[in-house]
Every structure is written in structure tokens, then in C-alpha cells.
Amino acid sequence: MGADLPGCVRRRSRVGKVRQFGGVEAGVLIRFERVEKRFGAVAAVAGIDLDIREGEFFSLLGPSGCGKTTLLRMLAGLETPSAGRILIAGDDMTAVPPYARPVNMMFQSYALFPHMSVADNVAFGLRQEGKRDKAEIKRRVAEMLDLVQLGGMAGRKPHQLSGGQRQRVALARCLAKSPRVVLLDEPLAALDKKLRQQTQLELVRIQRQVGITFVMVTHDQEEAMTMSTRMAVMKDGLIRQVGTPHELYEFPADRFVADFIGTANFFEGAAQGDGRIKAEGIAESLAIPGTIAAGAGIALMVRPEKIAISRERPAGAVNLLEGQVAATAYHGDVSLHQVALASGQLVLVTAANLRHAAEPGIGGGDRVFLSWHPDNSVVLS
Amino acid sequence: MKAGIGWGKRAVLAAPYGWLSLFFLVPLVIVGFISLAEPRVGVPPYEPIFDWSGGWPPALHASFDNFRLLFSDDLYVSAFFTSLKIAGISTLLCLLIGYPMALAIARAAPERRGVLLMLVILPFWTSFLIRVYAWMGILKEEGLLNMVLQGLGLIDDPLVILNTDLAVYIGIVYSYLPFMILPLIGVLERQDPALLEAAADLGARPWKAFLAVTLPLSIPGIVAGSLLVFVPAVGEYVIPDLLGGGDTNMLGKALWDVFSLNRDWPTASALAASMLAALVLPLALVQRLQRRLEVPE
């Protein structure tokens, strides 16, 4: 990943020198080992093993209450695991207090110190180290503020800034010490939609520029996919799948992941043993990728954009379904069709509006044919 | 905005102003007039300021003699400084004792916070006078404190606390502690706990995080609590009278002596007016400073 900033002194872990640890393969910076966190009878994190590699932009994604924030807070040292170990750069961090970890966090509320100027907020972490002189701190603060494009704002107080500016001060503050890991807790949740999209790319640019490992918590799958190099989908305190955005979208491990990342159509049924399944409510059997032993109950998952839709019966189509368009949402670039099959099942289909046409094309009430190649579907057990 | 105030709003605003002028400003003006009058033996015990016997315009019998007397008499000057000293030290003690208590209550689990808050307010349900009398019972030579200490074998001879300045400090700190704690709880409770987490995350040990974040953000509460303790403590009469010794010379006591023993209303009024002036000015300054320090959310 990108080189360090000029003048940016890579801080070594305070707990011990950075070293490779027996069993931790090269490149792994953070390791969770069977980490659990119980609040009373509730297990917020129910046993997680996870490796995060140096230089990654890693996202923890899941619905609210899935334990992603608790996992992040344990990494920061703000919560103590009930069981298991957390290693950073090979050092056991489980019992290390937050002020001694090579980790800095950007809080969801930003948690800027309201009585300090922007410059003092950014300098706060540097001043705690006690070994830097004033000129060095001043230079570093200016460098950080330039990085987040807040050069002229050093003297302002947080309440004099807009939401987006505060967010950038919070980012500058947690980058100032050049930590090994930066933690982001729903970093964009407080911004409006337009600003959020700009900031997504801005955060990725800054992460590449400073080369620090970022771990982000978000409930927004679009945000996670846009920004992450890899991500983990969580539910009920457990990780359901880890992978790149592409892997998670194209090869989801289970129904939950398929449904949470993007939109999915499911056809429940039983395998026939000949590379086809008999789906509920559909007369003709459907072709699936590969072969599955007869009798196994499976779900066939097809993404909306991978289904072809037409008014005319396509020639030579493999999986052909007939239905009636129940509703259409025109998005400009694409149109979203809800197609009702004879069984009453609704299938979502996205069609790109490729041609500059005078007519809106397929619309509500039309009889249509749906088809997809088996390779474009995924079998989920 | 001021131009836009309608009659309805004016009427509503007039109510508190009317109340304040009637029960605060008018008595203050009366005290001010009496302070300029000449004392005499009679009812009322002062010469009228306006002498109407000569018809219009009335002759004015006003002088600053009473004030001159105050500043020339060591008794009053030393009472003034003793009062400031005792009130100041008591305020500091209240802050030192009250801050940790307020912090503990503000950080306590919500279901326990109500109980703790109740315990702070509970003494108010008993008469202030009775509580000060209770301290006489505790502090006197054959009192509860000495009995316990002697019973434990910690001391041989009883400690002489009652009728000393120490007893006055104990009484004032005990009585005014809730006025320090309550505003402190107010500001500490409102602090975002994420701020302390952020400080720890950025490398501040708990003690440094307290000094850098919690303490400066609680200054408005410290100022408010200190004023609530200091101002009434300066003029405190009951506590020095009941717990203090003959040589505990505070303004409130001096005022009472002049007013009711000497029946010298003009000198007492002059004393009250001087006390007010000496307190209002620094108060106004402190409040201005506080407004500057306060951070908008």
C-alpha cells in the first residue's frame, strides 16, 4: 500500500516491538481468536475468529445488534472480551488498556472535545506522548489538517464547523499519531446522502495515501462495498462470511448474506440429482450450476440484473419463466420490474435502459418471459 | 427580536419583573434610604430623610456618616474579611468534597442515581435550624463525636470543637454541600461519555483525561456551585451564632448585633448595603467570565 506521509513517523507498538508471531502468517495485522463478549445473559459477540491484513480497508457489516460495534470497541480496548484473545501485530492486546494500544478510533458522534480548537483536538493524541516538541506537533497538526482539507480551520471550535468538517477533524485526530489501525464507527452516518457519497471516496483516498489499516463498522452494504477491500458480514454475534465485495455479492455463503448484500431472488426446491431442481410453484424444473444429490432441499439464488426480461419468448433459453409485470420503478439508468409468476411468487428483475428510446419499454401489466443461464445462479443449502 | 415582542409576551414578562421590583427592589431601596439616615431612639429608630416641616421642597437629612463609621471601625472591617475568608475556605472545601461525590453520582448506574440524588436532597426535609442544633449535640465536649473517639481510645481528653471557627466550617460545609453538588451533577451528567473514551483512545491515562476533558467541561457547574455556596455563606448568621465562638466575627452576626441589640437600623442598613455592593461586583464579573467559558453544544 501507499507510502507513509512525509514526516510521518511510524509509531511502534508500545507493548512490545513489532514482530511476526508464531502461527500468524505474514501480512496479518489483527487477529481475533474465539472472541466472545457477553452483557449479562446476552452474547453480543458469540465467538469470532477473524484475521485482518496490513493495509486493508476492512468493513464489519451487519444489521443493528449483530455485534459489529462491540467487536470494534473490543479492538479499541473500550470493551474487554469475556473470552478469547485479540492480537495486533502479534502482540496480545486483550488486557492492554485503550490508552496503550496502537489503535485510534473515529467515533460515530465524532466525540470532538468541544472546549478545544480544531488544532488542539488534532494535537491531543500527540501531546499525550510527551516526547514531541511543540514545533513538531504544530507541523504534524498542519499536515493532518491539509490532508483532510481543513487548512484554514485550525483556530475554530467544533461548534463553528459543519457536520462534514467535524467528521474530517475527527479523522485528522485519529490519523495524527500514525496508529497501526484506524477504527471507524459508522463514520458517515451523520452526513446527508450527497456528502456521504463524496466522503466515501475521500476516505478511501486518504486511507491509500497514509497506508494505515482501516477497520470500519457500518450497517450500509453499499457503503461497505464502495469502500472496502474486504468485509465481514455479521449476524447475531457471529461472522457469516468474510470476503471481497465481489466474492460476497457473487458467491454468498448463505441466504442471509445473499439477502443482506444487494437484492436476491430465491427459488426453494429439492434437487433431482441431474443438475436440476424442482422448485416450488414452478412447473418446469430449473437448471442449476453443478450437480447436487437428489432430494436435498436447496435454494437457488439469482440476482435481479442476471435475469433477462422480454415481451417475446426468447429462443433457446434454459430457465424460462412466464409472468406478468406487477410494478415497474424507472430509475433512469435501470428499470426495476416486479414480476408475478403463476404461483404468485414475485421475482425482481433489473434491466439496463441501454437504448435512447421514445417508449418507456416494459411496464406494469405486460406479459413477460424471464430467463437466466444456470452459471448466473448460486445454489444455497 | 426585541421590536417584535407583542403585548401578550410583554404582559407575561411583566409578571416576574413586577414580582422582583415589589419584593426585591423596593425593600432594597428602603434599606438604601435608611442607611443614609441618622439613628435616634424611637419608633422607627431613625430620623426621616425628607423633612416636610418646611413645606416644598423638603429638607434632605442624608449623610454617609454610617458608612464612614463602618470603615473606621475595625470590628466591621475585620468582620468583612473574616466572612470572606470563612466563606472562601468553606466553598473550596465544598468543592473538594462535592466534586468526587457529584462525579460518582453522575456516573452511577441510572437506577442507583435516583437514590443517591435523593440522599443529597434528603437533609432539606428537616429544618435547617434543627440540623445546626444537631451539630451542637455532635460537636460539644460531652457530645457524640467525643464519646465515640474516647470510646475507641483514640483520644484521652475531649476535643474542643464547638464554639470555634472549625465548628463554623463544619456547619457551613455540611449545610451548603448540596448546593455545590447539584449543579455539578447537572454538568457532569450531560457530558458525552464518548469524550472520555476518545481521550483514552488517543493515549490519555484516566487522570490526564479527567484534567483535560472532564474538569474544563465542568467549569460552568463549578462556578454555579461555588456562587451558590459562597454568597449565602458570606452573610451566614445562624451557623456562626450557634456553632461559632465569641470571637467568630462574621458579617451576618455583626449585622444582627447592630440591628437588634443596638437597635441601630441605619448602621445595620449601611452594613447590608456595603456587603451587597462588595458581593455584586465580583459576582457580575464571574458571571461574565462564565458566559465566555460556556461552550455551546
Order of helices and strands of chain A: EEEHEEEHHHEHEHEEHHEEEEEEEEEE
| Rg estimate of chain B, integer Å | 24 Å
Oligomerization status of the protein chains: heterodimer
Q: Assess the beta-strand content of chain A as a share of residues.
A: 25-35%
Percent of residues of chain A in helical segments? Answer: 10-25%
Which structural class fits the helix and strand makeup of chain B?
Answer: mainly alpha
Please tell me what the overall shape of chain A is. elongated
| Poorly predicted runs of chain B | none
Q: What's the level 1 CATH class of the domain at 73-263 in chain B?
A: Mainly Alpha
Strands of chain B, total number: 2
Please give the count of helices of chain B. 13
Query: N-to-C terminal Cα separation of chain A, in Å?
Result: 38 Å
Mean pLDDT of chain A: 89
Arrangement of strands in the largest sheet of chain A: 6-7-8-3-9-10
Q: Under the CATH scheme, which architecture of the largest domain in chain A would be assigned?
A: 3-Layer(aba) Sandwich
Q: Main beta sheet of chain B, described?
A: 2 strands, antiparallel
Number of strands of chain A: 20
CATH superfamily of the domain at 73-263 in chain B: MetI-like
Uncertain runs of chain A are 1-23
Molecular shape of chain B: globular
CATH homologous superfamily heading of the largest domain in chain A:
P-loop containing nucleotide triphosphate hydrolases
